[in-house]
């Protein structure tokens, strides 16, 4: 039996709050009286809305709407999940809370689980905004768990979490959540199940929630029937073997409860990546197991939920399964084509990269370019750097800033993803080749030749 004492004090208090008025408003907006179509519906004489000009406005779409997403929208989302995530048990609309983007969802999750100062463990390299998303409002204490690239596929990576938990326990810091981004941003690879099983067992033993950020679940391109599985990228890097672990949503695990109490498992997905609609600010949190967790998220939903008009448009967008199926296939095929062009380019420049299979990015190693740039841009009192091992994160950030200011190319530096060593970067390859080629040429020419104004 799940006990809410794992939630933050604030979330527990919220659960005791009398929400009857909020529920009544939702009922009144979801079941509106109509003389002919719905004579038994609720006559809404409670919500302070001026309906006298109703014929002049777009009616339903401009009403307050439901803070957790209309039932129609959540039903359509559940159909997308059931069609594309292969869930073990069908997901229903009641297993879903819609949020205004996963960024906002992460803040809500932190606020429900963490009192200020409680820790969230995030394996690195990781999506650069996690730290602020969990900290800025909820004041959760983000603790990075550096995982060497060669351990990404290994079940032994749990030992890094164990060590971090020990350190934090000695400091009297409670760990409330582990965040697993699968498929991973920035690596573009998926976690092997044995590695996840060990992490889940560890979380279960220590009463820690696990959030699966599956925002790139449908942007998996390299296990397509048309992809060439024989292309082996292993020689391209000495760090990660090209094993092509297929993506499996945690929702699809029939044996989840052999590793963890499912009450501790949360899934996040949304429109931003897999549907290329980041401006809509629509995401969803799925938790078929723990209803009080979803209720806790709903209670704070009122502060920031999606506009009725977005609800209505997204609802129509997700209802068209024929369109969506072909959209997803086209998107994955385009990603694969762009990935192949970009990796051929990188290979021609001898740039190692993690052979990704999902997402719109590549994690590339530019430490040799950084060494050349560094020696071209030494401060007057600095001696030449002879080995890539001597490079620092300050060097990386200085080159990154020079690339942006003077090269006019924006890439993301490895440091912002909390990379373990300097010299990594994430580049986006989901850009038409014509433009991407200009960007790559400009980037590699700049790193080879640049002398910033401070150089001798
Ligand atoms: C792993 C990951 N999670 C969450 C987000 C934020 O998503 P949203 O646009 O829904 O706020 C991003 C965006 O880049 C991301 O890469």
UniProtKB/TrEMBL annotation:
Residues 52-443 form the Aminotransferase class I/classII large domain. It comes from Smittium mucronatum. Keywords: Pyridoxal phosphate. The keyword Transmembrane does not apply. This is Putative inactive 1-aminocyclopropane-1-carboxylate synthase-like protein 2. It comes from the Eukaryota. GO terms for molecular function: pyridoxal phosphate binding; transaminase activity. The keyword Transcription regulation does not apply. GO terms for biological process: amino acid metabolic process.
């Amino acid at each position: 039996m799940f006990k809410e004492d794992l939630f933050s004090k604030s979330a527990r208090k919220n659960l005791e709050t009398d929400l009857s008025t909020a529920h009544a408003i939702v009922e009144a907006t979801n079941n509106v009286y109509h003389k002919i179509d719905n004579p038994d519906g609720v006559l809404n004489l409670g919500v302070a809305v001026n309906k006298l000009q109703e014929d002049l406005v777009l009616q339903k779409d401009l009403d307050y709407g439901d803070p957790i997403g209309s039932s129609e929208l959540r039903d359509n989302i559940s159909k997308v999940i059931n069609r594309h995530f292969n869930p073990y048990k069908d997901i229903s609309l009641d297993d879903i809370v819609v949020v205004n983007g996963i960024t906002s969802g992460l803040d809500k999750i932190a606020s429900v689980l963490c009192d200020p100062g409680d820790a969230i463990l995030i394996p690195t390299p990781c999506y650069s905004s996690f730290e602020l998303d969990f900290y800025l409002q909820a004041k959760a204490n983000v603790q990075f768990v550096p995982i060497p690239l060669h351990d990404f596929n290994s079940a032994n990576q749990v030992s890094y979490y164990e060590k971090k938990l020990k350190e934090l326990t000695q400091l009297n810091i409670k760990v409330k959540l582990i965040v697993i981004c699968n498929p991973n941003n920035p690596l573009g690879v998926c976690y092997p199940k044995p590695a996840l099983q060990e992490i889940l067992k560890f979380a279960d033993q220590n009463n820690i929630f696990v959030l699966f950020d599956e925002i790139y679940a449908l942007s998996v391109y390299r296990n397509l029937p048309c992809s060439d599985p024989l292309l082996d990228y292993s020689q391209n890097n000495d760090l990660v073997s090209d094993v092509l672990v297929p993506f499996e949503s945690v929702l699809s695990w029939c044996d989840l409860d052999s590793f963890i109490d499912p009450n501790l498992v949360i899934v996040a997905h949304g429109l931003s990546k897999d549907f290329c609609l980041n401006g809509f600010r629509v995401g969803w949190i799925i938790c078929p197991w723990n209803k009080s967790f979803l209720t806790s998220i709903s209670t704070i939903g009122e502060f920031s939920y999606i506009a009725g008009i977005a609800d209505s448009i997204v609802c129509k967008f997700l209802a068209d399964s024929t369109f969506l199926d072909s959209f997803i296939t086209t998107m994955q095929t385009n990603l694969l084509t762009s990935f192949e062009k970009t990796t051929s380019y990188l290979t021609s420049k001898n740039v190692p990269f993690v052979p990704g299979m999902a997402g719109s990015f590549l994690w590339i190693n530019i430490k040799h370019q950084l060494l050349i740039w560094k020696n071209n841009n030494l401060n007057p009192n600095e001696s030449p750097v002879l080995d890539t091992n001597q490079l620092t994160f300050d060097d990386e950030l200085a080159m990154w800033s020079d690339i942006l200011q003077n090269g006019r190319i924006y890439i993301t530096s490895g440091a912002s993803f909390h990379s373990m060593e300097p010299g990594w970067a994430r580049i986006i390859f989901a850009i038409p080749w014509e433009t991407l080629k200009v960007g790559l040429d400009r980037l590699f020419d700049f790193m080879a030749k640049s002398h910033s104004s401070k150089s001798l």
